[in-house]
Amino acid sequence: MAIDIKREEQQVGKVEQRVVYESGNEMAAYAAHQINYHIMGYFPISPSTEVAQFLDLMKANGQHDVVLIPADGEHGSAGVCYGASAAGGRVFNATSANGYLYMIEQMPVQSGTRFPMVMNLVCRSVSGPLDIHGDHSDLYYALNTGWPILMCRDPQAVYDMNIMALKLAEDAEVRLPVLVASDGYFTSHQKRRVMTFANREDVHQFIGALPARGYPDVLDRNNPITVGPYMNEPDYINNCYQQSMAMYNAEHVYDRIRKEYADLTGRDYPILDLYRMEDAEVAVFLMNSATEIIKDVVDQLRAQGIKAGSIAPNMIRPFPQKQIAEALKNVKAVTVGDRADSYGGHGGNMVNEIKAALFTQGNRDTLVVSRIYGLGGKDFYAEDGHNLFKFAIQAAEKGYVEKPFDYYGHTPGDPAKAPKRVLNPMKYEDLKTGLITVTPDAATGKLNVRIPPLRSLTKKPKRIAPGHGACPGCGIFSGLELFFKGIEGDIVALFHTGCAMVVTTGYPYSAHKATYIHNLFQNGAATLSGVVEMFWERKRRGELDYLNLPDDFTFVMITGDGGMDIGMGPAIGAALRNHKMVILEYDNEGYMNTGAQLSYSTPIGHRTSTSNVGKKQAGKLFHHKDTAQIMAATNIPYVFTGSESYPQDLVKKAAKAQWYAQNEGLVYGKILITCPLNWLSEDQEGTNIIDAAVSSNFFPLYEVENGITSITYNPEEKNKKVSVADWLGSMGKTKHMTKPENAESLASFEQEVERRWNRLKAKHENPYL
């Protein structure tokens, strides 16, 4: 089960194979399309996002039958997958980092109820602070979820392990969901030469056909079952024992499967990849992408007469305890590199499990050095490998480990280089112009707003400095700054994860002049709720008197349409509690910080990287979410839509939003934002395209003030209405909808736009609607 590999050319194998040149993400998708899974529930998060993108592109071209279900967040995607697996089909997913942690509540449920599936964990740093590059901090959270875990050092392994993983998951002795782990960006995005099955039939012959998995599912009407009952002790401990036995069974079942696979393909993945360990006196243990580099270092040290070797696991759950102890029985010292820390545990998870393995198997002689390396995607070079070996060599020479645990690759801070404030805080008198007045109208119950000519507000300082990294033509900051022109005085802003957050806060720099907070994609509304209530409580207790605040803060949460998908629940919760704050959504019709995937605000038929256009599919398959109407249904004081193509309208609504947020409760606003990258449009055409979106009634301008709807711009009354088709024709992502073959999709979209517009007009005319 642990084979010493000499890096020789592999044999061809028994099945016909073909060579491709692809990345790890592409190979995960390629394996999934050959398997032809029934269902993939997904939600985009870098660096795993591409897996769904590649599958969708192949789906658009008719290359597979996998049903891709875009979820509202990773927790939802895990639920989709669990339900689909309970219904007896083959299920696939991919995620990373905080996305995995968001779904982790579902992971033990799936393994504890023994429903197989395969999920790719494209490993990435877990926030915070936010870092999207590869380490194993998310992987280590997976160790206790009850899923067997296979490891992938390169794109070839990603392909092979994905095929073996399904066979392992469905084996009668295992019957568990399986995790396939690869390194984000190192493996996921770097292209390599990969050998694949040339024929899908050979893949199916290897994994086996459905059904006949030997256990019931929820769709068997002749055998109704109860899934996930409440269970007391002793039944619960018995269930856990059976699951534990299944996990340990996965070791010998995997060993059988990998031998079958090696016979077919010529590629073997023993549980331990041992390199030149037959007489090694010093060794390094690493996982995944760093393991090929360390082999080069071993060769270099061997040339110097040092008996070096390396160990890399292809499976870490179940942990290969006996094989590790056997591999190290003659080794004087080993350095274990963990690409994540188990904070407070005197080492990462792997070093502590290796120590336990040696202790349990009676090896008290091998010295173990623990080093945390490569966090946040820090590159690993041959020089680093030599240094890891140096720690083991020094321990072997001295007969003891001088420093058992430490970080490797960190640098001491330099007080002289501490970040310094570049921009001074904005002056209150500059922010409080006095040019905007908001007064309640007792007769109508609405607010009367007076604003000066917009040129009078140009002296008002911008809340966000120009030094950000947004794409050319991005409408986020022009839209936000126009909204902020209507806000008088100081703000505290919270930004959800999204384009606006990512491009303005690259440490050690920040483009934010006012106080700024960031929290997780889904939890901003709850976080800002806590800030708001703490402000009012500390003010009530007199703890903020020293600030001499002339006015109260205005608390604003900025979110994209993605944040109002994954964060919809907390946003509704904040609305129902009616905290004094503003939620402002910039809608660019896609998940842009992860690369132009569809959001629930993407309209039907629109092209994104997960709603591709091809001979079998013509863009997004379902209608867009009307967030403003959803939030209006929570009965908050004020809801509005806005557009920078109608600046006076937006500034007036911002002034109203501030008044309501300071005096009555929660405000929700939605502004349409141009995104040339997603819309496939010219940078300079953004305002014109948004104007057409408003004038076609796709994005109507209105407000809901204390439950009463008022349309604030009616293109029909102004004789400025344009057709939906004319608007769609102005963007590359939607031009296909104007072609004759997509007439049905266009008609469906036009009918939906007209239906929503007529409902809005009815509400405008009737205060009880």
Oligomer: single chain
The count of domains is 3
Q: Cα distance, first to last residue?
A: 70 Å
CATH third-tier fold name of the largest domain: Rossmann fold
The total of beta strands comes to 26
Keywords: 4Fe-4S, Electron transport, Iron, Iron-sulfur, Metal-binding, Oxidoreductase, Pyruvate, Transport
Family: Belongs to the pyruvate:ferredoxin/flavodoxin oxidoreductase family.
Pfam families: PFOR_II (PF17147), POR_N (PF01855), TPP_enzyme_C (PF02775)
InterPro entries: PFOR_II, Pyruvate:ferred/Flavod_OxRd, Pyrv_Fd/Flavodoxin_OxRdtase_N, THDP-binding, TPP_enzyme_TPP-bd, Transketo_C/PFOR_II
What is the structure about, briefly put?
The chain is α/β, with parallel strands linked by helices and 769 residues long. Helices cover 36% and strands 17% of the residues.
